[in-house]
Amino acid sequence: MSASPRTADTSSQPLSGTECSISAGPYTATIASIGATLRSLRYDGRDLVVPFDADEVRPVFRGAVLAPWPNRVVDGRYSFAGQDHLLALSEPERGHALHGLVAWADFAVAERADDRVVLTTTIPAQLGYPFRVEVAVTHQVDEQGLHTTITGTNTGPDAAPWGTGPHPYLVAGPGHVDDWTLHLPAQQVLEVTPDRLVPTALSPVADVDDGVFDLRVPERIGSRFIDHAFTGFDRDADGTATVRVTAADGSGVRMTFGPECPWVQVHTADHVVPEYHRVGLAVEPMTCAPDAFNAGAERGLLVVEPGESATASWMITAV
Questions:
Q1: What percent of the chain clears pLDDT 90, i.e. is strictly above it?
Q2: Is 293 helix (H, G, I), strand (E, B) or coil?
Q3: Predicted confidence band at 2 (pLDDT cuts at 50, 70, 90)?
Q4: Which of 96, 126, 132, 213 has the fewest CB atoms lying closer than 10 Å?
């Protein structure tokens, strides 16, 4: 009789994967290896993102890394280099391929220090995405906040389409999304269909729905629903843009990102599950727009040649 195949013992591992805690100054962060996920981030004990428990299946992509595309590929279909591809529909209720291929991958811990952790995985060539890309995610804290960098390196023989971004739900302070004030200095919003969120027109924020998405001057979020991508950001001299969310007591959180992320998806976390509903504001810097696999370079799709890499970074800081 042949012996049963040996498998790794993961019985003592939390459902969210290997846990890595990092800290520096007033900041502490916990990273979970499933999806290289930001499970918690605190400043002097105050939550800056909506956390979840170590032995909990991560809710609603909370804190996950998104690659090789963020957001949606409409109908899971795209063409690249003259070939048609069909991805698995991971958002079946809307019929799209959502948030890439690594959000549920168990990343390996490649480096670890008190203030820094590097996690890696490889996207294998597969049906729908026949390209091989190594993904490295670095989370590091210092006195300024949490810095995250994602690098995709093409280790396959063919050029690969690529996009990335994170999915944190920011917490400004006491209360819920409705109570907070948002400063979103973007000039344009990508309109979408109301049922399936299929991208349509790119429009000035002042021209859509009586300016509901025009948050270039900070406004209380209130009851407005947002699940849209924005671009055309006001940036400082080094190309950095900032999205800021603040609570009535003056506490808050801001997310900064460089020119490699020309897009940001913002979502007010409207959800049928009461404990998820509008408890944090998703702010997702992205290297490309939703459905960029179909829209192409015009909306930020990157093409990574064999042996080359693409890198994007952002930072979360307390206000």
A1: 96
A2: helix
A3: very low
A4: 126
CA atoms in the 13 A half-sphere facing the CB of 262? 14
- Taking alpha carbons only, the member of 72, 138, 66, 71 closest to residue 105 is 66
Q: Using alpha carbons, list the distances in angstroms from residue 176 to 42, 96, 161, 239, 311.
A: 17, 29, 37, 31, 33
Task: Give the integer Cα–Cα distance in Å for 178 and 122.
Answer: 39
Q: Is 103 within 8 Å of 64 (Cβ atoms)?
A: yes
- Parallel/antiparallel/unpaired status of strands 165-166 and 160-162: unpaired
Measure CA of the first residue to CA of the last residue in the chain; give whole Å.
Answer: 64
For residues 307 and 285, what is the distance between their CA atoms, to the nearest angstrom? 25
Tell me the average pLDDT across 28-45. Answer: 98
Give pTM, 2 decimals: 0.95
> Do residues 280 and 177 lie in contact, with contact meaning Cβ atoms separated by under 8 Å?
yes
pLDDT 10s digits, 187-204: 999 999 999 999 999 999
Block residue for tokens 């952002």:
314
Gyration radius from the chain CA atoms: 19
278-311, pLDDT tens digit by residue? 999 999 999 999 999 999 999 999 999 999 999 9
> What whole-number distance in Å separates Cα of residue 252 and Cα of residue 215?
16
pLDDT at 212 over 90: yes
The amino acid at residue 210 is: D
Q: Can you tell me the mean pLDDT for 259-267?
A: 98
Say if residues 223 and 178 touch (Cβ distance below 8 Å): yes
Residue with tokens 């100054």: 25
Three-state DSSP at 162 gives: strand
Q: Please, which residues have CB within 8 angstroms of residue 8's CB and are 6 or more apart in sequence?
A: none
